[in-house]
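Notes from the pairing session

We agreed to fold both candidates in a single pass and log them together. This is the raw record for the first candidate, unedited. Please don't reformat it; downstream parsing expects exactly this layout.

Candidate A
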Amino acid sequence: MKLYSHIKKAPEYFIVEELPRLEIASDGKYDVFLLQKRNTSTLEAVRIISKLLKIPLKTIGFAGLKDKYAVTTQYITLPSGTISEEEIQFVNNGRWQIGKERKNSFFKIKFLGRTNRPLSLGEIEGNKFTIKVRNFEKSMREKFYRNFQTIKLYGFPNYFGEQRFGSVKSRDDFVLRYLLKGNFEEALKVYFLGKEKINVITSWQNIYKILKPTLEEYEKDLLKGLIRGLPAEKAFRILPKNIRIMFNFAFQSYLFNRFLGEYIKQKYPHIQIPFINNWKLYFYTEVEDFEKLKGLKIPYIGYEFPPEDPLLRKIIRKIFKEEKIDPATFNTEIAGIKVMTDGERKAIVIPKNFKIISKTKKEVTLEFILPLGAYATILLRNLLAV
């Protein structure tokens, strides 16, 4: 993807520091540790801590998921006294182990103090980013500085970034589409194969045989159940609940991006930028009604939060019709999860302390703070127009 030719050459090009909503004291029911990691996802680090230190996974509290291909700093909590060491380093030398030699993938935890409650998802003020943009060619500079000033003045559209669409394996392919139709068999084939291959590999035996080396244990159990004749709906429930919920999040995030993109496209001068799966994102270049836009919230479906803006109402109806979404599915339960639930998200994000901290002929280093839920990769797409 073109964006990544300009960032993430090495994890050190993408530095993320969590800004916690956390009071650290000298005593309390929970120990607070600083988790510093490189080339490792938050979930992977937490699982390794649980496994190697023999700590129940559910007792490890954390507030946010940080990028894998980055150098990141965040906070975790554990019940007081769970770990006696002040600092522990984990390295990947073919397999994860506790050690001191720094490898390509590693992380460490360092004791900071105590608090009276565990961290839970969402309990952060935001994240501070330091990002080096490379391959900063002369042809990019005029566009870059123009977009930089636009973002300084008007912020940028609050689209969901590509990280939100981990369950999408091919273009316009969402497991939830099939669940909404009650077609669990097709939903599972899309989950394992992606839309483009579901008519090529047809039997569960073949799917299991081909994918076995890459499958998680619960996926193996699921496919073995299907091979034995377990109904697809029951087999689907073998997937962990957090994964089933992500199918809903991914589809609703896609709808939100469509609502916001169409609103910008119809209302403001804009540029069009390619996104994953041949989707398009639209970024405004001028805004005449900034105060209104700054306060605008886009609903996920508009069921509990109907928008006041007539243009937005019209756009949501139009997209629901195009996507063949039946309002009868709103806020219903399918396979043990609530689907098509409503909520609101701000239409734009205004980065704090957005500045260039160094530059050469070929590289520019940026620094900025984003609130919880905003994506640095979306800001960068807007800035670089790629």
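Candidate B (folded immediately after A)
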Amino acid sequence: MTTTASSDVAPTEAYALLTSAAGGLPATMPDVRAEMTEDEIALYDRQIRLWGMRAQEKLRSANVLLVTARALGNEVGKNLVLAGIGSLTVADHENVTEEDLGAQFLLATPSVGDVVPSDATPAQRYAADRAAAAAVVGTNRAVAVSQQLSAMNPRVKIVAERRDVSTQPASYFQQFSLVIVTDRKPAVLNYINTATRLQNQPFYAASSYGFYGFIFADLIEHEFIITRDRGNIVSKPGDRETRTRTIVDVKVDGEEGTVGLKETITKREAYSTWYLASDASPLPQSIRSVPRRLRNVTPLLACLRALWKFQENHDGDANPRMPSVNSANDRAEFIGLVNQKQAFLGTPPVAADKIREFLQSVESMREISPVATVLGGQLAQDVINTIGHTQQPIQNLLVFDGTTMQSSVYAMHPEMNLGNAQLATAPNTTAPESASEATGGTMSAAVERAFAAGAATGAVIEATAATAAATVPADTSIALSTPTQASK
């Protein structure tokens, strides 16, 4: 097991460890061992019984990037490490603060030999807690988290990346088999998702805002396998179950006419990018066409879209700019955005008390441990299913309400082709070359520089817009920039 978690490792050395042996950036970083050992099989026995040996082996060879090691990232990282993922790179360029210690259980853990005895007095426990906090506050967050993750499962390779990955070129993400970004602003999500699309890599985004949160998935085109009892209606390859889901293959286990016939079905889900799904996409027709279902859409969907738009409007700040409930200007702007997003979705107006609760949660209760636990567990399980190609993954936006402990999933897609047809991919070329191919060679020099340099400039939004607009039919491209008009 190799761990890069020392604060004295230079960024260039950390990057060298990431890119390592083979001169360049490999598409994945697979485990070189051909088979699982008996010890590993015994360790992971319960989950192998749950999702099978084949899925466990896929998990064991996966190389995942987890961006931002806050409370939600802690939960996701813990679940993936305990599940036996092959390699996990934790990326966070910020240092631990006193505030982080309140909800992030991977921080401020006493080192071996300094564990407080069971008969310690309250004063001794307090002193030990303060000493542990003093040891970690001010250190890099990725490094601090990686140390504890390594102790949880020494079989997993943990790498601490201390640079801001949103400033890296799109080719940086090619080395990972899957990318998860937590608690970052929309511009960063847009850039990294565009980069993963160009490298043909699955992408997840998630954030928690006090009692609320979301998970977004762009798996481009993802196949998964389910086994079930064969019903009266025979499934056939090519059948389209929904707008996003198609049956690819059907295998029957047993002779026709026998009792208890089983069928193994391979299905394919097609996805949209964050840029197109997070704001310009309407609710699916199956919801829009049924008034009762439309009334039941959670008002958090409009609130989240308003929050993301608010952050875009105030993207000049170094950190995500949240609306303040004590600012009359912020309240007025946010309420206007909620009304705009609600009108576009066609859902009932959002009650004033719900908007107030949301604003208070966003501003005052950024990280709540139980919410991070539930949301992180859902995200980690979906990642495991995606890597193992078992079970139907999230399609494509999950909205979590911690006040009711309910998760609602909505398939948010624009009226255009989905999957690979939405944004051309070119894994074997540089980021500017790939984006240029996707747009038919229409990229400007400024856009090419944005992809080469990373998301340090606002030009990345222009890059994604140019790429997406080139693939949208003429009658729907207006939705990319003016969602309110698209709803008319």
